[in-house]
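--- STAGE predict ---
source: upstream dedup step, 1 unique chain passed
mode: sequence only
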Amino acid sequence: MPQWITLEAARSILGVQPQTIYAYVSRGRIGASPDPQDPRRSLYRAEDVASLAQRKADGRSRESLAATTMFGSEPSVPTAISTFAGGRLYYRGMEAVALAGNSTLEEAARLLWGCEAAVVLASPDGDAPAVPPGRVRAFSELALLTATSPSTRGRLPRVLLDEAMALVGRLGAAFGASTARTHHALPLHERLARGWKQPAAVADLIRQTLVLLADHEITSSAFSARITASTGASLSACLLAGLTTFSGPLHGDASLRVRALFDEVERGGADAVVDRYLSAAIPLPGFGHRLYPDGDPRAAALLAGLTPPPAISRLIERVAALTGQQPTIDLALATLVAQHRLPADAAFGLFATARSVGLLAHAMEQLAVDSVIRPRGRYVGPSIEVPAGPSRLGRRRAT
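--- STAGE serialize ---
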């Protein structure tokens, strides 16, 4: 490539008008020199033109990538916490369903948080609040902690881990886990079972459920927790941000829609309800997961230990026969609650308590990045009206 090129060549490379080339020269972005063959003309430094062209191409690529990543696909976030492979979920390389076979939420938290010491998810000290167990109490307590807790900046990892343990323990208590002093040494699933007055067999199902639900890679709630962590906010703020996102019916509260479906099935029968949904092209809540085309292995593992009522069993059979879709963890969770008559908010409580472990894992992992997550907007609104006359800055300079 020659060192100097003509105006026509520069315009061709950059795809701009002559006035733009002159502007680049006046700003020092493109070097210019008189043409030895014709002093009335100028030549332009080829290296500067090529560099500008590359920057324009990179800018277009970045804008296209950002728009596609945020709105056409999913954000891509490096993480060592969990992933999917072969239609299975893995926590730091360990298959989640296998881990849930005999591990507790405390052991899953130790794995997901990368702890060396044992994790204890103890109940908070002090008298139980007057607010009854449930999401109102859970969110109220987290909001109060968020207003008073210190930033994560400048705090040692072991201190943050202690705070994370306390947050999960407090959340479990807010959803009904026993806070009796004689139960403090028990793992969280046993305290939940005692608080809900359930036998040991149900306590083991709760244990399995908590481990299965502890994390699910970069969900929308995990991303919210990471954004909050990137600003240096407190761990309670990170957890509250994640759980607020999690509470939507298209995310962590999906089992509520499944419960409504169960009510319809009890009133009208599985066959009639399924036929009505399919004829109206309405998706059946609790069936089909885009990450598990062959069926949600977490749901299969939990349902294997349950005996659904006949109407729910018929629902599962009918949907599988007509659509090929298998139950999701939301349906399995709703089945657990229905079969053992757990409290009305137990499905959300189990899911939120378990997932708080994963949300805190993502928040603490994000702290190591030490950079604020700040997406850029791509303006698509009305044309911008530039005020006429000199700007305020120009008027100040004029005086």
